[in-house]
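Sequence only, no structure available. Ideas?
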Amino acid sequence: MTQNDQKYISAIRLGDTEGLRRIYREFLPRVSSLVTSNGGSYEDARDVFQDALVVLFEKCRQEHFALSSSFGTLLYGVCRNLWGNRLQKKSR
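Reply:
I predicted one. Tokens follow.
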């Protein structure tokens, strides 16, 4: 785990406002691009991003949590799965 990855995990665990702002600045544009290119809006992207941070908060608090990829890859994957789930529900 890189030093930046550790900072991101710590920011989520501790609710560090400045750290969370940094996560938003760095990773929200990529997630926004994913969502808007797949039929969503910027607001949808923000909702998915927020939900992903909640998922990561819960995961990070688990005793045996270990990051096996970069933080960005994990966050993007969670967002992609959440957006896919929303699209499936909309299509039903």
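Helices lie at 3-14, 17-36, 42-60, 71-91.
Hope that gets you unstuck.
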